[in-house]
Amino acid sequence: xxxxxxxxCELRVRSLTPDGKHIECDETEAGFESVRITDLDTLRIVxxxxxxxxxxxxxxxxxxxxxxxxxxxxxxxxxxxxxNFYSAQPYCVIDGLDFKYTGFPxxxxxxxxxxxxxxxDVVFMAHHLSNERYTTTRTMRLKxxxxxxxxxxxxxxxxxxxxxxxxxxxxxxxxxxxxxxxxxxxxxxxxxxxxxxNFYSAQPYGVIDGLDFKYTGFPxxxxxxxxxxxxxxxDVVLMTSLGSSxxxxxxxxxxxxxxxxxxxxxxxxxAIFFTTNEIAFLxxxxxxxxxxxxxSDARNVLRYNNVSVNKxxxxxxxxxxxxxxxxxxxxxxxxxxxxxxxxxxxVKHAHIISPINGTLLQELYTxxxxxxxxxxxxxxxxxxxxxxxxxGIYDLIEPLVSAGTLVPRPKNVLxxxxxxxxxxxxxxLIVACAQIKLFEMGFAEIxxxxxxxxxRSQGRGDAMLGYLERLSVQVGCTNVFxxxxxxxEWFVERGFTEGMVDDLPPTRKxxxxxxxxxxxxxxxxxxxxxxxxxxxxxxx
Length: 540
Description:
540 residues, alpha+beta, six-stranded mixed beta sheet, 31 strands, 30% helix
């Protein structure tokens, strides 16, 4: 049924067996003329075919909205939205007859539906109509008043289609159950729905080097505002690999390409890629798990193994060695390449995880993780200082020396200690600097951390601190400390805790300036994974 402004909805139905043969429907059970028994096999077919019709309706409605000028990226109106907008319950056993998976509506998420309709979108819901026993195909002609919101309820049992529809229903069901069990799907808070729809458009590859890719395509545009509206309502957005063009054609899109494209368009913090095999990147010498890579290192790995990509359309090519690589190895490089693509589109972090129960939680919530984390090169532009930088460092720190925030550092002292300084440059201009000194017992001191005034609040200070913390861990110094008279709170916010003079290593304690009475703040870093977690909180 089409509610609200529908003028006409015509369905033509014919009954088929699962193998496609025409059949005559049997009479229903006595006393239950409108309800059919649904066993597990029938339920799977229902989900597969319901998904097929669901894709078709979304495609046709999307094309109609576009042709009438109501699906527009400027107005952010005219999307087709489907999801868990209602719950059901089983008939169970009635008069000794077990109806198995046949059910009836239990509760409608009216507030969620109203939110979608108020945004001038179309709500699409599909359910199992049990007045035919076997597979049916239907053709539809829909004439809608497109100046108003439309609520569409499509009655279907089965039609010609495939497994994607089944997967889509299964994902929605599992997500819905998880949200409900964890108290996130509640009729009082109106939160926790699973929402899918035409959240992106696709375009065809066309003919490349004489090869017609037919209905294979790649992402064209993402409806970012629509997705953000759903996420702001604490709902889960579900997208599939079938994308439609404005003309209504459906194209099969590579899922990794879609994930990378959407994550970049949304400015996501993380993009997570699961492998189909239990694979991992290991260090060549000690066979330890590679817990993290910088994007530049990831590019070097791909380049070393002759893996290239067409950035515009997403083709990945293994030059010369494709036949020599195992399938799991090729998959690992493909996932790594899409991680790099995600970071190049603006995503902060990308993860590669094996499909084992618990690995996602372990990756996100434990220090060691379970897979490999690839991060942007936030340290790009940082290098060891040289004698030619002395004047620039002196000019940068002089205002703070005059204010008493830093101890004086004459140019001759800077020149003698220049190898312990690092600078952050932009267009050959020093915009930040810092010094690191190594001590006995695994201690390292970070000092003279200064950022040029015009570049503060841009993550430069965090980058300098993180870079030197990584250097400390790399050389075996897991205890980092700073001395400060003015900027204590900044270090506390980054995991440092106040210490005492007696906590300093002996050689540093011996030269501590008791007249200046600088406060001491210390931080213990076990491994680089802790720093990866801290970087996620930076405003980069």
